[in-house]
């Protein structure tokens, strides 16, 4: 239910959508709200709907100047960028071409989102000795314009950023991982086998939600599993113009430690994982963001037993004020 308004002394305009969140393929419905305080000449009410992904980043580079015996390092930033439009459309919501009397008006509109578009995404950071910036965004925008008559009259405009999530595949089941390995002391002396089975309780989650991983551990070895560890990993890849022009950000996001399993014992555990992450999963052409969970059986003086499971994390619903336009009735 997006709301944003811009006003002049003689009129106000705003946009109201019927839902907080949309998915690829959904029909966006809502109203353009117009409040007129004095007679106003205008031509039309127009809605522009756009969706795009945009990337911009800098990379540190060095060149050497001067003779070989007195070379100097010159550090500089190399610029990269890219933009991809998913759609850009203009809809005439109402055609006046005349004078609007004072009053309140609500013009209904609808727009069909394309199938297969990625969800909203924002990423910003600076890194390195030069403070290189990295910016990546997937955005969807609705912009309402009251085309006002008169050469010196400014049009009245309002815009909102719509929250669009990638549509989930109903056939996908919660991620599952399994690994049976021989526990080898110092990497070579066999001490028996251990099996780790793990699965998520849901297919996908919302940022800030608690995910639960069910872990079934059969430690048939003569070595204790000191602890169960989880590491949430994230990889963001952004692309720009040109072949193989990309920048990758990869690393740990969250780490947790849980009780282990004694030698020749079994254990079933529910491993809670608070998904306090800043970016959702994304699958654009220029921007991709994926998460996976590494689950480790930590065994002293022996290689860990691990499983790796992908997880999708979506943006939460936005909080929007119930005020549509100041002074609006109804």
Automatic annotation (TrEMBL):
**Which GO biological-process labels does this protein carry?**
protein transport
The record's annotation in Pfam families points to: Arrestin_C (PF02752), Arrestin_N (PF00339)
Q: Which InterPro entries match?
A: Arrestin-like_C (IPR014752), Arrestin-like_N (IPR011021), Arrestin_C-like (IPR011022), Arrestin_domain-protein (IPR050357), Ig_E-set (IPR014756)
Instruction: List the Gene3D superfamilies.
Output: 2.60.40.640
Listed under GO cellular component are: cytoplasm
Q: Which SUPFAM superfamilies match?
A: E set domains
Where would I find the Arrestin C-terminal-like domain in this sequence?
A: 190-318
This protein is called: Arrestin C-terminal-like domain-containing protein
Species per Swiss-Prot/TrEMBL record: Palpitomonas bilix
């Amino acid at each position: 239910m997006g709301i944003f308004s811009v006003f002049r002394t003689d009129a106000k305009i705003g946009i109201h959508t019927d839902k907080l969140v949309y998915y690829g393929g959904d029909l966006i419905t809502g109203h353009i709200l117009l409040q007129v305080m004095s007679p106003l000449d205008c031509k039309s009410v127009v809605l522009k709907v756009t969706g795009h992904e945009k990337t911009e980043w800098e990379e540190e580079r060095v060149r050497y100047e001067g003779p070989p015996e007195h070379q100097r390092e010159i550090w500089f930033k190399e610029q990269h960028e890219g933009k991809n439009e998913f759609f850009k459309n203009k809809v005439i919501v109402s055609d006046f071409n005349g004078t609007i009397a004072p009053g309140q008006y609500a013009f209904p509109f609808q727009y069909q989102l394309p199938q297969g578009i990625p969800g909203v995404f924002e990423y910003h950071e600076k890194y390195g000795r030069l403070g290189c910036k990295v910016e990546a965004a997937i955005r969807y925008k609705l912009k309402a314009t009251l085309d006002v008559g008169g050469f010196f009259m400014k049009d009245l405009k309002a815009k909102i950023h719509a929250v669009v999530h990638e549509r989930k595949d109903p056939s996908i089941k919660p991620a599952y991982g399994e690994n049976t390995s021989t526990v080898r002391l110092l990497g070579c002396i066999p001490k028996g086998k251990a099996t780790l089975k793990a699965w998520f309780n849901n297919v996908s989650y919302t940022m800030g939600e608690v995910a639960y991983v069910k872990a079934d551990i059969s430690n048939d070895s003569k070595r204790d599993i000191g602890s169960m560890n989880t590491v949430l990993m994230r990889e963001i890849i952004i692309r720009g113009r040109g072949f193989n022009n990309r920048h990758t950000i990869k690393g740990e996001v969250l780490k947790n430690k849980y009780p282990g399993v004694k030698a020749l014992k079994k254990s079933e555990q529910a491993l809670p994982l608070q998904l306090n992450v800043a970016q959702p999963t994304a699958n654009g052409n220029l921007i991709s963001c994926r998460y996976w969970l590494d689950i480790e059986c930590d065994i002293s003086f022996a290689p860990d037993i691990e499983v790796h499971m992908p997880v999708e994390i979506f943006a939460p619903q936005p909080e929007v004020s119930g005020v549509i336009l100041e002074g609006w009735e109804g």
